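Data follows
____________
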Amino acid sequence: MSSYDRRDLGLLLLRLGAGGVLAAHGAQKLFGWFGGHGIEGTGQFMESVGYAPGKASATAAGLAEAGGGALLALGLATPAAGAAAAGAMAGASAVHAPNGFFNAEGGYEYAATLALAATGLAVAGPGRLSLDHALGHVFDRGWMVPTALGVTAAATALVVGARNKRLRDKKPDEQEALFAEEEALFRE
């Protein structure tokens, strides 16, 4: 087996593994499969962690994960698929970042690993054992890589930034409620 064949086989395995996991995550959000909560439950969670509106956020994350993951596994539209999946995982990383890095502590380790795998595949390309290769790379042109990653980075920054602003704006209201409760206790 030549090193070129080995590279293609390695990219296939990485695409199938990372793409399959991402597709399953998206299916949990969209359809409630694999122990997921579907759009309703995921939407409520998304709203609780600052992504609003929750249902639309759940749909967008589910589509980016399921669609991006499935396309990565197939090796089709690899730059867009990798970018979409990486954007979704960057949004998940923002939720887990306050808990530190390691997944065991609720950190962003897992989401960051999936984001890096998806980004790496978007940059490296799908290899010869892919639909992109079979179709002559019509959905995998060199200019598509920086375009897809740039657009996704900008959109992700806007979405995560809006989430962070919502959380910052929410905190003073919560603090005022706590002070009101304390005041009521002292009056009694």
